[in-house]
Amino acid sequence: MKRALVIRHAPVETLAANFTSVLQSENFQLEPLNIFKDAPVYRSFQAPPLEDIGLIIALGGPMSANDDYPALREECEYLRSAMAAGKPVMGICLGAQIMAKALGGKVEATGGYQFGLSRLLITEKGAADPVFGKIDVPLAPTLHGECFTIPKDAVKLAEGYMLCRDGAYRRINMAFQYHDSYAFQFEPQLTLEELKVWNKEFPGDYELMGDRFDAREESARNLREFAKFAPYHEAQMREMLLAFLRNVA
């Protein structure tokens, strides 16, 4: 059985049932590395040797990739070494930003905040990619206020728009591919059940969107819209994960 290391930065951010079932069906043994157990100092990053791991998935979290925590510094170096060794890595939200930094990219504030469905502007290379091209409906749930630059030698797969707090729109990067690794500034693993948990645990995140939004209205809208979209989202992201596992992992 192959081993998949799942780096978790927050208790409520998980692979969820959709991705978990796919990985298990492909004979991956999931091994969580719970960075959040050492909050708020995040000192510990005790990952297994890379030669013992077949796949790494780095999930999101409340901190910034620019925060000077020992665990995040070590994680960045671990992902850098993994990608240099040809190990497939999938980074989601914070995990994607740490991947970008590991490859020499930058992470910066967007000037706004997203918590809800966002349109993906898929590039020509993204549409042709054997993994990312499995996304037929270019819409995905997001939860972030920072974005990454595309690292050198990486391929941009998608962009998106951020409505900034000053009312301006900003175009930001949403996904890139680097050899056998993929980084997503959205939440491909999210299920409706997990979003219900996030709505309870992260109510203050809607307030970060700015005074142009009513936090309670946005929370209700996000849940209502994703309840309708979730079956499509889970189906296409399941196909994307399967393609990732069968093509590169």
Give a short synopsis of this structure:
The chain has helices at residues 16-25, 70-84, 94-102, 124-128, 192-201, 203-207, 215-247; strands at 2-8, 28-34, 55-58, 89-92, 107-119, 121-122, 139-148, 155-163, 169-178, 181-184. It has 249 residues and is of the alpha/beta class.
Order of strands side by side in the largest beta sheet? Answer: 2-1-3-4-10-9-8-6
Order of helices and strands: EHEEHEHEEHEEEEHHH
Rg value? 17 Å
List how many beta strands DSSP finds: 10
Here the CATH topology equals: Rossmann fold
Count of individual domains: 1
| Corresponding CATH architecture | 3-Layer(aba) Sandwich
Which structural class should the secondary elements be placed in? alpha/beta
Q: What is the first-to-last residue Cα distance? A: 13 Å
Anisotropy-based shape: globular
Task: Please report the number of helical segments.
Answer: 7
Mean pLDDT equals 96
Full CATH superfamily name: Class I glutamine amidotransferase (GATase) domain
Which helices and strands occur, and which strands form pairs?
Blueprint: E1 2-8, H1 16-25, E2 28-34, E3 55-58, H2 70-84, E4 89-92, H3 94-102, E5 107-119, E6 121-122, H4 124-128, E7 139-148, E8 155-163, E9 169-178, E10 181-184, H5 192-201, H6 203-207, H7 215-247
Parallel strand pairs: 1-2, 1-3, 3-4, 4-10
Antiparallel strand pairs: 5-7, 6-8, 8-9, 9-10
